[in-house]
Design goal:
The longest helix is centred in the first third of the chain and has 29 residues, at 196-224. Helix 1 crosses helix 10 (396-409), helix 6 (250-257) packs across helix 9 and helix 10 crosses helix 11 (436-450). Strand 23 and strand 24 form a beta hairpin. The strands form six sheets. An eight-stranded antiparallel beta sheet has the order 8-7-9-10-21-20-18-19, with helices on both faces. The protein has a six-stranded mixed beta sheet with strand order 1-2-3-4-6-5. The protein has a five-stranded mixed beta sheet with strand order 11-12-13-17-16. The relative contact order is 0.08. It is of the alpha+beta class. Helices cover 31% and strands 30% of the residues.
Length: 698
């Protein structure tokens, strides 16, 4: 007999069934929120994985197309690899869960969330986040939960808890906040220039709801929770730390890590490690964990320097940004390019423009998002960190960074009516030493402007870090963290936005949450840094979007036609539109509302295509004059093509003022002639006259 628990959440009922399905998993929660159904499971291996120095957590979010009554597209009619949306959702679940597992736990853990039904009123992502927390909390897997997650939207300035898919489509804010019992543990946001104060209000409105959900989860755990199993700890022995400090003193380690050059610091640590390996050559047990021990020694040293001495490894002040540089047009012939450098972090972004038809089609569970015209892709090759490994395509990190930059820039893009282009930006990481995702936002903004994309405002991004002490009020927030500070610190708080507000947030932490003062200080410091980057670097490099698109970019003109005339332009089986394309060499896209985009590089041919389309959709009246080509000659007259696929007939009596016996005496195939519309003949065809064209029109 299974147990069922329910609570009211944002006006809808959340129900959790325990011991109903998947009983062989360590923990399973069968989640219902409205008609949305998600099965969340938590499973751990019996033994730790050997030879690793990290916690092997895997989070999966499986989108089943039957959940929305669809059969998967393509030749293979079953779900394939995870979509980008599924990967991003997995990352959002992973980020608040990971810090709550023991740091020395090495057993493989998989959190699986299978979306089985989707109710447009109840977002399955929220259900999966809560399901993962509940399944892990009731399992025997060591976990310092629970945590809970809530989404917040904003329409006309009003905050909405767990908005529906329809509300999300028109919301100015898409915020996800995860919390533990006491603190906020994860923030993910996309926003339409939301002011900092409003963002903070939204974050803690979600935190308040999360605390109510945690009280609900506590009841389930008290009733159904299993005792947590013991595990083999992989912690470094304290005796090893003591011995290391005798060989490499804390002062020597501080000198080793105190450098603004990554390669110098890594060489120093390599020498320190070699010295310790030589000293412990006879102790195989210590040698096996020496790498982790050196990492921990560095971490303690860096954290002590920052927190107690207010010294950063590269000598900067706490709020100081690394040296910045920006330039545009570094790559010829592409449609737009820009490079942004911050210390040893360097990103080059390339912009490509194309017709709207080349936008990305999406096949997922969200019925309100079937495609997108702006795509941001982020690449992180191994040479950017001085390593060597083959490229295997983008991983989850690259997909996540690309999505974050895309989210930051979408709010400032022009509408399709203003700028009828599909837009792709690709950020290539040339060098990495902290916060490349935010550098890619800066480079992408400048690249878009260099390409002539009329963005409304420039966007910049920056990241803050954190080092905490023993108490909640013992902490320090660092502006513009480099790789080492991210690696050994407690937080990577990324914020992007314009002068007027926030467009994206992503917060990753390694501790059990942040207090409100920390979050408020981080948001304030990122705003200050963002203003500096925009004003002193980016806007001095390129003040605004260029007036025209790059000479190598396609030119696009958009006209509107009566939607009822779309069939006339397309023609039977596409005959008419293909004839226009073949003759002019342009690309033509037509939307259901009658928006016609003509794309090409030759303005003369584009004008010709526009003329043809406008001619085709014109309601023909007597007296209209056209220029056409003789395409067929009969005994009774000639057919004149006045637009591709569109013909009218000139009767033999209307060809010349004098009587003629044969059409061929006056006209030959291919002749270009001017004709005047005489209306329609008895067969409904356009009737033309050549002889009645006014003299001043000939």
């Amino acid at each position: 007999m299974y147990k069922s628990y329910s609570m009211e959440l944002a006006g809808r009922t959340l129900t959790v069934d325990i011991d109903r399905v998947a009983k062989q998993a360590n923990g399973a929660a069968f989640m219902h929120y409205g008609d949305t159904v998600v099965l969340s499971t938590a499973t751990a291996s019996e033994k730790p994985r050997e030879g690793i120095d990290f916690f092997p957590l895997s989070v999966e979010y499986e989108e089943k197309m039957y959940a929305v009554g669809k059969i998967p597209g393509g030749f293979n009619k079953r779900e394939g690899k995870a979509s980008e949306h599924a990967i991003l959702t997995s990352r959002v679940i992973d980020r608040p869960m990971r810090p709550l597992f023991p740091k020395d736990y090495r057993n493989d853990v998989t959190l699986n969330n299978m979306v089985m039904s989707v109710d447009p009123q109840c977002n399955p992502e929220v259900v999966a986040m809560l399901g993962s927390s509940i399944a892990t909390c009731i399992s025997d897997i060591p976990f310092d939960g629970p945590c809970a997650a809530t989404q917040v939207g904003m329409i006309d300035g009003e905050l909405i808890i767990n908005p529906t898919l329809e509300q999300n489509a028109k919301s100015d804010l898409k915020l996800t906040v995860a919390s533990t019992r006491e603190k906020v543990i994860m923030i993910e946001a996309g926003a339409n220039e939301v002011p900092e104060a409003k963002m903070i209000e939204a974050i803690f409105e979600a935190d308040k709801v999360n605390k109510e959900i945690i009280a609900f989860i506590d009841k389930i755990v008290a009733d159904c929770g299993k005792a947590k199993h013991s595990y083999e700890s992989c912690a470094v022995p304290e005796e090893l730390f003591a011995a290391m400090k005798e060989i490499v003193t804390p002062e020597e380690m501080e000198v080793a890590v105190f450098s603004d050059d990554k390669q110098t610091r890594e060489e120093n640590i390599r020498q320190v490690t070699a010295k310790l390996e030589e000293a412990f050559a006879d102790n195989e047990e210590w040698l096996a964990v020496l790498g982790e021990a050196v990492y921990q020694y560095q971490k303690k040293t860096v954290r002590k320097m920052i927190l107690k001495d207010h010294k950063r490894p590269d000598g900067r002040a706490i709020t100081q940004i690394r040296p910045l540089a920006a330039e545009t047009d570094i790559v010829p012939r592409v449609h737009g390019s820009a490079m942004f450098t911050r210390g040893q972090t360097q990103i080059c972004t390339i912009t490509t423009l194309a017709p709207l038809s080349e936008g990305q089609r999406l096949d997922g569970l969200d019925e309100f998002e079937v495609g997108k015209r702006y795509m941001h892709h982020y690449n992180f090759p191994s040479y950017s960190v001085g390593e060597t490994k083959p490229s295997r395509g983008p991983g989850r990190r690259e997909i996540g960074h690309g999505a974050l930059a895309e989210k930051a820039l979408v709010p400032v893009l022009p509408s399709e009516e203003e700028f009828p282009y599909a837009i792709r930006t690709v950020s290539e990481t040339f060098e990495s030493n902290g916060s490349t995702s935010q550098a890619s936002i800066c480079a992408s903004t400048m690249s878009l402007m260099a390409a002539g994309v009329p963005i409304r405002k420039p966007v910049a991004g920056i990241s803050c870090g954190l080092v905490t002490g023993e108490t909640d009020d013992d902490y320090i927030v660092l502006t513009d963290i480099q790789g080492l500070e991210d690696f050994f610190g407690d937080m990577d708080f990324k914020v992007a936005g314009t002068h007027d507000g926030i467009t994206a947030i992503q917060m990753d932490i390694k501790i059990h949450g942040l207090t409100r003062p920390i979050i408020e200080e981080a948001i304030a410091k990122t705003k200050q840094a963002r203003e500096y980057i925009l004003t002193e670097v980016m806007e001095k490099c390129i003040a605004g979007p260029r007036e025209h698109v790059n000479e190598y970019a396609p030119k696009i003109v958009q006209i509107k036609i009566d939607p009822e005339k779309i069939g006339d332009v397309v023609g039977q089986r596409g005959k008419t539109i293909n004839a226009i394309i073949d003759e002019t060499g342009v690309k033509i896209d037509i939307t259901d509302d009658g928006a016609v985009s003509i794309c090409g590089t030759d303005q003369k041919m584009m004008d010709k295509a526009i003329h043809y389309i406008q001619t085709i959709v014109t309601d023909y009246k007597e007296g209209q004059i056209f220029t056409g080509k003789v395409v067929s000659i009969k005994e009774f007259g000639a057919f004149i093509e006045f637009a591709p696929g569109k013909e009218g007939m000139v009767h033999i009596s209307k060809i010349a003022k004098e009587r003629i016996n044969r059409v061929e005496d006056v006209l030959t195939l291919g002749d270009e002639v001017k004709v005047i519309c005489m209306g329609k003949d008895k067969m409904g065809r356009m009737s033309f006259s050549i002889k009645d064209v006014p003299a001043d029109e000939k």
